[in-house]
Predict the structure.
Amino acid sequence: MIPAGVTPLDRPQMAARLARDIPEGWFVNLGVGVPTQVADHIPADREVIIHSENGILGMGPAPAPDAVDPWLVNAGKKAVTLLKGAALFHHADSFAMIRGGHIDLCVLGAFEVAANGDLANWTTSSNDKTPAVGGAMDLAVGAKRIWILMEHVTRDGKPRLVEHCSYPLTAPGAVTRVYTNLAVLDVTPSGFAVVEMVPGLTLDALQALTAAPLVMASS
Amino acid sequence: MIDKRFTLAEALRDIADGATVMIGGFGAVGQPDFLVNALADQGATDLTVIANNAGWNRETGIPKLLDLGRVRKIVCSFPKNSPAFDDLFRVGKIELEIVPQGTLAERIRAAGAGVPGFYTATGVGTQMAEGKETRMFGGKEYLLEEALHADVALIEAWRGDRWGNLSYRGSGRNFNPVMAMAATCTIAQVHEIVELGEIAPDAVVTPGIFVNRIVAIPAEAKA
């Protein structure tokens, strides 16, 4: 249970918190869902180039309803725009950017993240009704950094930060940082290190919502 | 005179039962639905389809082939949100090979480039690695992935000329240029057929060497 008096971040606030840490000049791929919202919160005076795996660098915001180009969609198949300076390319080049280590950051959602950085975000069971992986495995091994943006616990209150993932892995040891609605945590050789917590939250209270040992980050 | 312009029926006439067919597109963009719908009419069956998705709306494109029972196997990265696929998969009437999206693109590219296989870190330590050869490079583990060929590629481009040179629009490239390279016979639907030279040489994305037949989408078939 989230302690009384502690207000978790809502999704736009989570996206805004993560966006604050993206420096100018990075090439960033945003996963489908809440990670996509990060683009809306990058400060206007900071140039960050958004990559979409279906072949776009320099992706801009969603168009006005009367200005939709049906020939331009993002990885979530939603209409988007291009910034000045944008580039278009095919899928093999797009994943060469990913697999080749040219993307500075990929922000993904997750079902579970383990203390060693293992990521589970593509299927909740080995007998999934319709298994579908998309580009998650390529991004998880290829981008220079994987930051996870997700709620700290599931809808039923189960921790998503765990000692070992119970769901099938997307990639082992992939995650470097996690942004939740309660805290920012680094994945370190000695497990999860808490960088920041929402006001009023204690380490003990956060630990009670986390299924792996937490320490405070040293700096 | 080299002329790769075909009528729709002639372009698809020799696609045989049991063929492996690549189908381009990502989301609704760059999907060669005009060709795929005609393939459904042509009647070839027992097909293996290679595509990123298993389609969306039932009445058109890949779901139309699925509903007609023409597809034995689909190789794709993201078959979610396709009711036609779900119905077949649930009752075991279609085989699924799930491939990470970047590995799918590279397996196709490799086939077109004459590379029989390649090593990738994608999938290491996951269920995608089951049964695959691995090798260490620089202290890191990689999976061997094999090239993926097809008998036929059905693709969509924006403009094409009679030599088969193609240009694209927006995010419509996606899998189309690599699929064009990887099939024995590549058939492109285009929105406009233009004279040689109208696609400037430095604007050609898929050179005609990779394209066998082009078909113009008639105005009435454009959405």
